[in-house]
Amino acid sequence: MKQLDVCLTPDLLHLHQLNNVVVVVADIFRATSCMVTGLAYGVGSITPVATVEECKALQEKGYFAAAERNAMKVEGFDLDNSPFSYMSERLIGSHIAMTTTNGTLSIAKAKSAAVKVLIGAFLNLGALVNELRSEQYDVLVLCAGWKGRPNLEDTLFAGALAEALKDEFILVEDAALMAQRLYQQGRGNLLNFVANSSHVRRLQRLGIQKDISYSLQTDLYDVVPVLRGSRLVAMH
Ligand SMILES: O=C(O)[C@H](CS(=O)(=O)O)OP(=O)(O)O
Question: Which PANTHER family does the annotation name (predicted)?
Answer without folding.
Answer: 2-PHOSPHOSULFOLACTATE PHOSPHATASE-RELATED
